[in-house]
Amino acid sequence: MPAITSIIKSKREELIDVAGELFYKQGYNSTGVQQIISAAGIAKGTFYSHFKSKEALGQAWLKARHTVWLQMLLTFLDSKKTPKTKILGTFEFLESWMIECDMRGCAFLNTLCETPDHENALRQEIVTHKSELREFFQHLIDQHHGDHSKKERTQIATTIFILFEGAIIETQLFRDNSMIEAAKAQVKNLL
Amino acid sequence: MPAITSIIKSKREELIDVAGELFYKQGYNSTGVQQIISAAGIAKGTFYSHFKSKEALGQAWLKARHTVWLQMLLTFLDSKKTPKTKILGTFEFLESWMIECDMRGCAFLNTLCETPDHENALRQEIVTHKSELREFFQHLIDQHHGDHSKKERTQIATTIFILFEGAIIETQLFRDNSMIEAAKAQVKNLL
Amino acid sequence: MPAITSIIKSKREELIDVAGELFYKQGYNSTGVQQIISAAGIAKGTFYSHFKSKEALGQAWLKARHTVWLQMLLTFLDSKKTPKTKILGTFEFLESWMIECDMRGCAFLNTLCETPDHENALRQEIVTHKSELREFFQHLIDQHHGDHSKKERTQIATTIFILFEGAIIETQLFRDNSMIEAAKAQVKNLL
Amino acid sequence: MPAITSIIKSKREELIDVAGELFYKQGYNSTGVQQIISAAGIAKGTFYSHFKSKEALGQAWLKARHTVWLQMLLTFLDSKKTPKTKILGTFEFLESWMIECDMRGCAFLNTLCETPDHENALRQEIVTHKSELREFFQHLIDQHHGDHSKKERTQIATTIFILFEGAIIETQLFRDNSMIEAAKAQVKNLL
DNA sequence: AATGAATGAGCCTTCATTCAT
DNA sequence: CATGAATGAAGGCTCATTCAT
Question: Which nucleotides of F are covered by protein (CB under 7 A)?
Fold first, then answer.
């Protein structure tokens, strides 16, 4: 039985799941190791046999979250067939995501704000995630605006990225989707 | 004598200053009351005679920060004479501010991300600050685009606001001013 | 009532007493803060309002121990009237002390051996204590051997000091007073 | 192949070596099993298949250290041809040893001070080591002072032993060789 | 033999707040 | 108005050892 369950999900992965949920809901700093192990039903020492520190768990969480989130987005966009509809769909995804998470916002941006020290180990995961998100927009814009210069395409993709990010954080603050609507409307003008 | 010194700066204001610096640098949650009173050179009890809780101090800090920050912005924009140059100047202000604060970002957005509970007392101050910032852009756009419809003007001001916010948070992450440049370039197109 | 008891012994001094007993019996490293506060009947936070760290308590302990120990020695030597009998009396004191403490040895030497890092804050207290003990022997030898050269007197006092120290540590190991006897016999030859 | 490598050094011996270095540098109590296995590059279970406890490893370490240390001493004394020069040479050995180990002192005395419980299993190894060291001096004195009575010879050998021990611990404290010099000067007078 | 997950008590220290002085 | 002792839960992490694989 342990063999079978371990095929399904390793203890390590389970720990990332349990901790990740708490990290997202309560914030990384506000979530204690004690709380994580209580939720996971394991002992302190066991935790530290899987992760050398809370920070290492935090890193693993963000790494996993990057994959999961991107997959969620791509699944959402599956029905959209053109670069343009995919880009606009990304903002629709944002709307449904924000409603679902009760406007909790982005795990990466939240963690960014919680880590003033820019040499913090978590920062690299955040940089990676956001870089790839910008790349995602860039890729779609390159397809959609194939006739524009590279410089123009970069400017447009970056603008969309900034609008996306700004929309996330302001939705988190104002707790309604009006900012996403405004961002999406502007994006439409750019396409 | 106390009257004179209190004209210069009251104990309460001094406390807000000292705590504010720590809150901004280290984050609100990561700054302890003990550290604040040590830095301020006062006793525990004294602290609680000025503020009923750390949260109350946090509120006072954000309230004061709103005023100070806006004043900094307006001073920066003093030389700009038109709505258009004032709006673009706001992004120039952002650039110089981010360099000065070593890309620490916005105290309000950082605190937002640290307070998952949206009923947190600090949230109201953040909402107020960001609402007024959006209003500030709205006011300038209303002047600049007097011929546009109200709906159009709202859309443009909101877009600029979102670009401003997104630029802040991404500058904080990537630690260079390229995002502000991109945002400013887009704003230029809107004016 | 609190006023009166505080005249007799402050909480801080009581804490040093309680901790000191544990430090001596179990060793500095093997005594936890939790155990100290349990024995003292106070809360964790209270402890840290009196001492900024366990190390600070350790320093205070050794500082106090130096005074107390020297007083014990001087009291023991009160009946001895000449430098010679005082020196030999010091070894008699050692005998009775070792019996009383069940051969636990010297708190300073024990702590020395527990602190490999020679920059450890406790080390200075140990150096001070042992320096003053050597000085104590020096003073008595200077009186007893007033006709000898300074160099000779220094050599003799240092020898006695080394014999004293060696006798302590070996008594601690072999758990009988034979080493003290041998040391004392040698000291007799030097006087 | 395992046979050949085991001729060179068994896993057990390697473990003693690795642990011993840590025990000596950091102290027995301050060195954790985890640190030992990390340094040795083996797993927890492997460790406990070689030693039933940390204490058992400690015993093995001291047992080995006794042999190694004595060998180091004898090698150092190889060039000394008389009992007298061998005894004085022992103090010269002490000087060079203390310099080499950065005044870390004697592993046996350090461990003695870390083990308040005199029934501790490590104590026996320490007793054995120090007893043999005293015997070593006794042996040389018996040769050198063949004309003295046994009682006199015992007194002299014990005195030298105590001076040696006292010199070790005070060199550890004061971090210079002056105590060894003084002890050696006194020993000269006894020969 | 060797692995490393599991245990749970313990490490030192800080948390925000209260309250008697 | 100021002081700082008092609280006790919580912070992240290590301890020596066991045991199923």
Answer: 1-21
